Amino acid sequence: MSDNFENGQVHQDLVMKLQAQMPDETKLYDLAELYKVFGDSTRIRIMYVLFDDEVCVYDIAATLNMTQSAISHQLRILKQNRLVKGRRVGKQIYYSLDDEHVRSIIAMGREHLEEDDR
Asked: Does 59 map to a domain?
């Protein structure tokens, strides 16, 4: 690797440190895939519904004015990515956010959007 990069000086010690800290490509790919799940506004809306409450698919559908089938499809994706979990009570399944990490991701994103202009 050249010590110069487009008329700038490469700081080899820093580059080596950063390369050592970089997760392997598989972990970076998995992280990118996780964030793709957050890239769908319907899934975000579902997670907002589940932010503080455990809710059945029918109530989610009614809240978001969508079909039960459409909500079930999105819940499957959210479950596969461990963002929501279900708890069966009789024939009904009640959904909630999987853990505090999911709640934190949503809260931090909302907080970031609500920041005043810098």
From this structure: yes
Among residues 108, 25, 105, 39, the alpha carbon closest in space to that of 74 is found at 39
C-alpha torsion angle, residues 67, 69, 72, 78 (rounded to 10)? -80
Question: pTM for the full model?
Answer: 0.82
92: domain CATH number is 1.10.10.10
- Backbone dihedral angles phi then psi of residue 34, each to the nearest 5 degrees: -60, -45
How far apart are alpha carbons 53 and 12 in whole angstroms?
50
3-class SS of residue 7: coil
Q: How confident is the model at residue 118 (pLDDT cuts 50, 70, 90)?
A: low
φ and ψ at 56, to 5 degrees?
-80, 165
Task: Determine what percent of the chain is predicted with pLDDT higher than 90.
Answer: 88
Per-residue pLDDT at 21: 95
